[in-house]
Amino acid sequence: MKAMQVIFLTLLSVLAASAQVLKFGKCPKPAVQANFDASQYLGRWYEITKLPNFFQKGQCSVATYSLKSPGVIGVLNSELL
């Protein structure tokens, strides 16, 4: 029975590790979209679906975007348990 538990935990660890992607070097610098209007994205955004993870325990994740000052967007992430 212990051998099966060890095999199961090893397989589970390999599967969890394969979900991570490591990249070495400098961060990429994506191009900025021309004429981007951030005001169209201000307000509350609700998560439709998500992959399982250990840091989100709730069922309903919400991101609230607000204009803090010209050129500065504030983000408040929250969730309902």
From TrEMBL:
Source organism, top-level taxon: Eukaryota
This protein's UniProt keywords: Lipoprotein, Signal
InterPro entries: Calycin (IPR012674), Lipocalin_CS (IPR022272), Lipocln_cytosolic_FA-bd_dom (IPR000566)
Signal peptide positions (record): 1-19
Pfam families: Lipocalin_2 (PF08212)
A single Gene Ontology CC term: cytoplasm
Domain Lipocalin/cytosolic fatty-acid binding per the UniProt entry, residue ranges: 37-78
GO biological process: lipid metabolic process; response to reactive oxygen species
Keyword set includes Transmembrane helix: no
PANTHER family: APOLIPOPROTEIN D
Protein name per UniProt: Apolipoprotein D
